[in-house]
Specification:
The protein is of the alpha/beta class. Helix content is 39%, strand content 13%. A 7-stranded mixed beta sheet has the order 3-9-8-7-6-4-5, sandwiched between helices. A 3-stranded mixed beta sheet has the order 1-2-12. A hairpin with a 2-residue loop joins strand 1 and strand 2.
Length: 415
Amino acid sequence: MEQHGGKVYMDYNATTPLEPQVLTAISSALEEAWGNPSSPYEAGTKAKEIIASSRASVADMVGGIPEDVIFTSGGTEANNLVIHTAVKYFWGSIPPYDGIRPHIITSNIEHDSVKLVLEAYKKEGKIDVTFLPVSHESGRLEAEEVIQAIRPPTCLVTIMMANNETGVIQPVYEIFERVKLHDRQPGEFSRILLHTDAAQAIGKIPFDVKGLDADYLTIVGHKFYGPRIGALYVKGLGRRRTPLYPMLYGGGQERNLRPGTENTGMIAGLGKAAELVHTNLEKYFYHMEEVRDYLEEQLQVVFPDQVQFNGKLDESERLPNTCNVSIIGAGLEGHKILSKVKYLQASVGAACHSQNSFRPSPILLATGIPPDVATNALRLSVGRKTSKADIDVIVQDLKQAVDALKQSSGGDQKC
């Protein structure tokens, strides 16, 4: 059972605990490889070896090569680095023209580390950006919408691989293939860079960067039982096929692209977490899918005709661990239910939006979920060790929470 102090944790899309092997890798590195990786003595050379081994493990996990992996502080930095690069690459590739700005295409369900960066750049007059709406029927951004949005100065398409709230997997393979095949006309910017934030997908679904043919892929350790650092895959970086411009300047680490003395312990942990995913992904996938499906079955049994699964759509695939559910009824807002549970640890949406828990999720609204349903939403995300016994506990916990809310409202509310 995945219980912590009597609680059942079901917020794995927010963060995950460290696997024991990951914690061991971190501790060993901190104890035995404490030296500066740029130093020639044993503690330094050992740190350098650990970093190289971890880089190879991360590359193996995503189907790439070690030379194409850069370590970062996390997903936010990696996403910022891609957008920063696309803008600089645009202006470094064409002569300046009055009134022309680089154009970037994205969806209206992206993580804030993409969305807010693009909004800030647009406000500063540095870019033009198109936020394309996802389909209300599928929760996905359709490839044709992206193609129709391409303009002469389009320089970047950035689409998340899977949504962190609904779990809907975006058709990035199809989108990127269509963009690659799109004919650029004379006078148009020659290359459209392709980026996907794979934070929620890694450790849950199989994919391969070579088949995906992305130029950039964001990797976030704490989403797959690793430490809170990240990495950026850059296609052909070792052969300079894809641009990457540093945001920081310093000692030259990470090939002058991300300077700063390397965090050997956390990099060791990230490498071990990646190794575990590479070895065990199929087992993780089927376990999480089985437990998530059992969760949804039990919710329908306990709350017949009173639950709506947000993101469970016939035309789409979801992450195997994610259930976004609304228990229908006045006074059953998600934040109220969570205030009454005794064992469940979960959220109403993205952890970075927790200060707005009283409001319906913008992601759900963008997906076409009515405001009254979105306000009642709970995001339940299972983990590698979540059991059916855990599900039985939290479903009954939700039932007593709903009953308590109905009773406190005078017993006249219908679910």
